[in-house]
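Weekly puzzle thread! Below is a chain. First person to post its structure in token form gets bragging rights.
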Amino acid sequence: MSKRKIFSKLVLLPISKIYGLVTAVRNLMFDLHILKEREFDVPVVVVGNLAVGGTGKTPHVEYIIEHLRHSYHIGVLSRGYKRGTHGFVMATRNSRPIDIGDEPYQIYHKFGCEVAVAVCEDRVKGITEMLRVDPHIDLIILDDAFQHRYVKPTVAVVLTEYGRPVFKDKLLPYGRLRESPKGMNRADIVVATKCPERVTALDLRIFEDNLKLMSGQKLFFSRYVYANLQPVFPEQAPPVAPSLEWLTEEDRLLCVAGIANPKPFVKFIKRFKPKVRVNLYPDHHTFTRKDMATLQTRFETMEGKRNFIITTEKDAVRMMNCPYFPHDLKHAIYYLPVNVDFMRDESDTFVEAIRKTIKSKRI
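Winning reply:
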């Protein structure tokens, strides 16, 4: 047995059991109404997970917004992880990622005035302030707030990665779970995300059996679908963006990613013919002057017929707001948009499940 495994079993596993006890007691206190949940007059859709990072919350939040924005005036509230501000902040045209966080900035940048976007560590205070600032909001979406039980959700949507499901994971710090897999029982809707392209009906059935969901809970399977490359700096880019399909082995790509799980992104890029270099950073990484100098050096030493920098959509919002990004590389950097596609032709069924749950709980 390796030293790492010995350390994990002797140190991390006991800590994990203590952590599990603490979270179990906390959840019990909410279940017994010793700790109080606040219910609001507008429906609240919570999108979260049991594991830390990388399950695809933001693309699924954007999917819900896209399909409900014509029926509701939506307010999106997030914690605003790694932002440089504190307390309640409402997104405006002048907001930067450092003000509200990269994911809320991405949502606001994508949907603009069609949705209200705000950040606040205290979700009860955040919802209260959002409704005061914009009283026309009639649906709240809470991003990454499944464990924030001080707000009572109208609909709880919980995500779990198909390749790293909760039933194969352990509690922190021994594993990646924030709470016991039993916490899944509080979900109205469960989505297994990032499903592989080639997955059989039997595979999905086995996955469903292993989840052991309760009667009445809805299960959906989704996967990522990557769209065409988009310029990070449109004013500096050529009129026509490159297509991954027409790149050759003579071309070179520098992939840059600072997300929780960059493997699907990198794997997709490597399916194509150009040779790829990869620069990986921690999730929500703030790019520094040194990072940009390294990026420029790596790009300039690539010996390709055509050289490009490809990044993720979340990294792109930080790149475009980075004061150190080299001006002479702005023409060469593109991001790869990611969309959510529900398998088994259940796109409409997923949205309808949210609508029906809202209606049933608001009667």
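Puzzle host: Confirmed. Bonus trivia for everyone else. The two ends are 57 Å apart (CA to CA).
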